[in-house]
Amino acid sequence: MNVTIIGLGLIGGSLALSLRQHGLAQHFIGVEASPVHARRALELGLVDAIETDLAAAVRRADLVVVAVPMDAMVAVLPLVLDATAPHQVVIDVGSTKGTLLAAVAAHSRRGRFVAVHPMAGTEYSGPDAATQGLFDGKTVVLCDTEHSDPDAVQLVEKLFHALPMRLLYLDAAAHDLHTAYVSHISHITSFALALTVLEKEKEEQRIFDLASGGFASTVRLAKSSPAMWVPIFRQNRLNVLDVLDEHLHQLQHLRDLLAREDYDGLTQQIQQANHIRKILP
């Protein structure tokens, strides 16, 4: 199988490594807006060739992976489908689905497109962030598969099963709602925590010296790229605002308990939060 990957960053590059590792594809063609990233992707062996003509890159592939930031995705995906033949399959790997699927809902090649979201990643970006085995044991969400051709869905299922990943099926609205609750809020909270510490602790050396594993793990997502996350927040704005309002409410409640020196109440709230261990061991 020949695979064209549009966007050679963390997810696109890692998917190329995983597909190659498992023998699921023979030849990889890259499309990358950044010449520096394109050269680096070749040096790292993420792809075998770089193609500057989008339509030509699509025509050469059995599978096309669109792995660009979400705002660019909305513009690029219709162009990819314009160049797609009836035997080809196109997937995205985006973190929001509602806006994207609406943009291609009426496209004549909509059936060749399968919307997927691998729930995997790190705080790093670019070709050097690509990691072999990134998807092992993780969940991949397939969205609105009833609007995709059955053979296209079957191919995508086969590939992600082989990586191996767990498959979950959601409609676009449910996907965007639940990812706001369990993914997007984590990132925006991490950005806020980093800004808080940088504002209050003016001595960078003290942050370095005193940052424990807990702080480092909580704030690591603040290293994530704004080029990736601002489009996600924009496209999933209402769901993110909803969960942010609840998060602010919980923070205010904890603050009030501490201000009143209500340590029994604080204990109860922490014990209630501890229930998450029943879901995430």
Strand order of the largest sheet: 3-2-1-4-5-6-7-8
Distance between the termini: 39 Å
Indicate the structural class: alpha/beta
The poorly predicted ranges are none
- Annotated CATH homologous superfamily of the largest domain: NAD(P)-binding Rossmann-like Domain
CATH architecture verdict of the largest domain: 3-Layer(aba) Sandwich
CATH topology of the largest domain: Rossmann fold
Secondary structure: number of strands:
8
Principal-axis shape equals globular
Q: Compute the CA-based radius of gyration.
A: 21 Å
What is the helical fraction, as a range of percent?
A: 40-55%
Portion in beta strands: 5-15%
CATH class of the largest domain: Alpha Beta
Main sheet, how many strands, which sense, barrel?
A: 8 strands, mixed
Number of domains: 2
Number of helices: 12
Which whole number gives the mean pLDDT? 96
Summary keywords:
12 helices, 8 strands, 8-stranded mixed β-sheet, Rossmann fold, 281 residues, alpha/beta, 6-phosphogluconate dehydrogenase C-terminal fold, 2 domains
